[in-house]
Design goal:
It holds the Pfam family AhpC-TSA. One of its GO terms (molecular function) is oxidoreductase activity. This is Redoxin domain-containing protein. This protein is α/β, with parallel strands linked by helices. It has 2 domains: about 1-35; about 45-175, Glutaredoxin (3-Layer(aba) Sandwich). It contains 6 helices and 7 strands, in the order H-E-E-H-E-H-E-H-E-H-E-E-H. It has helices spanning about 1-35, 60-65, 85-95, 110-120, 135-140, 165-175, and strands at about 45-50, 60, 75-80, 100-105, 125-130, 145-150, 155-160. It has a 5-stranded mixed sheet with strand order 5-4-3-6-7. The chain has a two-stranded antiparallel ribbon with strand order 1-2. The longest helix is centred in the first third of the chain and has 33 residues, at about 1-35. The termini are far apart. The relative contact order is 0.18.
Amino acid sequence: MRISLMPRLRRAWRGHLGTLAMVLAVLLGAHAWQTRHVPRGPAPDFSALAVSVEDGAALSLAQWRAAHPGQPVALHFWADWCAICKLEQHSVSRVAADWPVLTVAMQSGDVAAVRRTLGQRSLNWPTVIDPDGALAARYGFRAVPAWVVIDSKGRISASSVGYTSEAGMRLRLWWAGV
């Protein structure tokens, strides 16, 4: 009885492998399409108003990277009006406890409005303001949430658009540091 069960299980799995391959191809294709405008090579530098610093002070990507020498850093693009961003905010917070993550508040208001949103959500994120989405556009993003990993040499190592799991965030940062 056991012998006859195994061939049926093998046939069933072979039938599912084609479906699994097709689903994987669709997911990879969607990822490639969503990140098609993300620049390759050096990460575009920027300077933007910082929420965590006194009002009016700017923070640049170069300054952020210099504060975390020799390790990869992440940029997390989000918006206060984005429902998916809310879903992944706890993952971002947990990753930010172990890795340098600079968040970018896209089209979410001025410094005071973003500070209020962060406070209401109990988020202690280092954040810069992207009032009109120009910074996100420089990185090739037309939607949020988006995640970018920059390696220790300043090159974009990985990017994603849409919900990214905590494991996915951590793996991308780990891979950039290898």
